[in-house]
Amino acid sequence: MSEKNPVKAVTDKIAGALHGDGAPSDGPEDGVPGKPAPVSPQVVEPTEPVEPLPPKADQSGPETVSPTGQPTGADPARVAQSGAYLTTAQGVRLPDTDHSLKAGSRGPVLLQDHHLREKLMHFDHERIPERVVHARGSAAHGVFQSYGTAQTVTKAAFLARDTETPVFVRFSTVLGSRGSADTVRDTRGFATKFYTEEGVFDLVGNNIPVFFIQDAIKFPDIIHAGKPHPDREIPQAQSAHDTFWDFVSLHTEATHHTLWNMSDRGIPRSYRMMEGFGVHTFRLVNAQGTTTLVKFHWKPKLGVHSLVWEEAQILAGVDPDFHRRDLFDAIESGAFPQWELGIQTFPDTDDQMFEGIDLLDPTKIVPEELAPVKPVGLLTLNANPSNFFAEVEQVAFHTGHLVPGIDATDDPLLAGRMFSYLDTQLTRLGGPNFPQIPINRTHAPVNDMLRDGFHQTAVHRGVAPYKPNSLDGGCPFFAGADTGAFIEVPVEVPAGRKVREAPASFADHFSQARLFWLSMSPVEREHIIAAYTFELAKCYEQAIKERALGVLANIDPELCSQVAAGLGLPAPAATEPLADVRPSPALSQVGRTWPLHGRVIGIVTGQAMDMVGVNGVRQAILDAGMVPLVVAAAGGVLGTGSDTVTVQRTFATARSVEFDALVFAGVPGAGADAYGARDAKAGAPRPPVSDPRVLALLTEAYQHGKALIGLGGAEALFEAAGISVGEPGVVVTDGAQGMRQLMELLAAHRVWERFPAAM
């Protein structure tokens, strides 16, 4: 997936952009996303009645199909609010919603106030139960375009050549509540709803290809262990506590997943830069009835990138909505996130093994060097939700939503998920008719003979919702394989005793964890060591720390000894022979280059700087498909006449963690609020070169491996921060050359040379 030279396509535009002849960019009018409404408001409250404003250009709602999957042809605006006047839920216009109906202005409120009753009743019931897991999430609409390369192994219609399928994709964290932060260390959900012509197909995956458990009966245990302690309800949205490490150090089948979580994969830079995996092995069926086993992969076109741990912690406080904001802003900017759907395929043998790997074990991967990932289609997210609750909160996924050509296997974790998801929707969404909620509606005709129940919005006809019948003319009829029926693959079921046990192949808990560790680059290994040390240091019980070190000893002695040193404990010896495995370079995030679309670049400047040059830099960034944010001492506009620049961030509001790189256009002066009582970031003593917060911004970005470009005399700023020009990723030059070097540095995501490894 890596492009040979991802910066070549944009560097040719830079010189022209810097001289004012760059082409306009797509996206928001000023190139900066985040405008809350389609029309800017006036200072005074509007009083002239107008119809509801349309959604912003980047927003869309579910397609307008009926509760039974029939296209209605209705404008999506027809299902939103309408009319210029405030009404009751019954459409009766109201003259006031600020005062209850009383017996005189100081008298008691009257029981007959139907508007008060309706308004409070609805408000009191606005919230539905949040998801037990994956409560914190965000989502977007898009389209999936099939390449047709999967047609030899599956008859699924949405994977036929040149087929386009609407999709809705939800990303999430596992452990946190709806109000938790986006950037916590956790597994992320990557769930895709395909509205295919044959019915809904849900690919309900994660950003980690393996799971903590091998059998769904253990799912309550791992979630109870990872959730906040039940007596104090802390800590929120993290695994750095005793109950989690107590469980995973005893339940060693969790070791492989835990190692992925402690790696940089546990703190992705963005949903747009996150891999997705179907986790389980599924079974494909082609038009001839031949079966193939398969694992699904989502490969981000921007590459797989992560935060560093300090960035993640800062962002949890500075911007807990960082990942959802990044997703929504990228779509609004026209930098549409894209992933290729890929498949690893395996012969459907009786033992369902491949190269000694049990394909039914959800704690195992098949390295891409053994089974390459074959691209089968392109996913593009191109529209944000128009209502978060109606779409993101009410969307309901289910691993049992399959279509002809894709079937389940006997993976014991998958079997439990097939059972469990419907229970979840019954509680959260108020009954069995959740498929009729607009975001969940199939785009295929529905004739299910299911009737009544809470929130039934279809108006069924006929008198015979049963089979067989003659009163409704025998309708609905059974379909066959030739008319698109979903027919389970008639696989042989192993004969044997009823037992509560796992196959012997499930007993290997360490070889693939060791494979993952050995596949990491030196800097990635350092991050894993730091993550384990941080998490275990948060545990209270010494016995849990010692037991966890015993698990690490069975992965790698260096990993174990380094974590033990950080905890001040002796490193135990391995209790099992270390596995002899071959590293998989595909698992590392370091060493390749990637496209730059949607990266956020801070341009730090001041009132006295050359605004023509700043505008040229800004346009060059836009032409490269990135988002420029101008940072100055105060908001408003810099410059005069036609040479002006709008400020998007101030020294008080900007932190380096928001940006992928920083460009310093000169040495800006101090802001009027640059003192500790107003802004603690300005309180530390600094050399009198610039605003102390600019120096802090520069220093922090340097520590996090960000590219730093200085223009127009910025050398003095770098020197004041103790950063030497010419160090890796530190460039002071003119505009055009600086932009070229910025592109080259960003393609590798970070300046990795700034992170020397001790190992």
UniProtKB/TrEMBL annotation:
Top EC category: oxidoreductase
Biased composition (Polar residues): 61-71
Function recorded in the entry: Decomposes hydrogen peroxide into water and oxygen; serves to protect cells from the toxic effects of hydrogen peroxide.
Stored CDD domains: GATase1_catalase (cd03132)
Family designation: Belongs to the catalase family. HPII subfamily.
Organism listed in the record: Streptomyces erythrochromogenes
Domain of life: Bacteria
UniProt catalytic activity: 2 H2O2 = O2 + 2 H2O
E.C. no: 1.11.1.6
Keywords on record: Heme, Hydrogen peroxide, Iron, Metal-binding, Oxidoreductase, Peroxidase
Catalase core domain ranges (all copies): 87-475
InterPro entries: Catalase, Catalase_AS, Catalase_clade2, Catalase_clade2_helical, Catalase_core, Catalase_haem_BS, Catalase_immune_responsive, Catalase_large_C
Protein name: Catalase
Entry's Gene Ontology molecular function annotations: catalase activity
Cofactor(s) for this UniProt protein: heme
Chain spans, region Disordered: 1-77
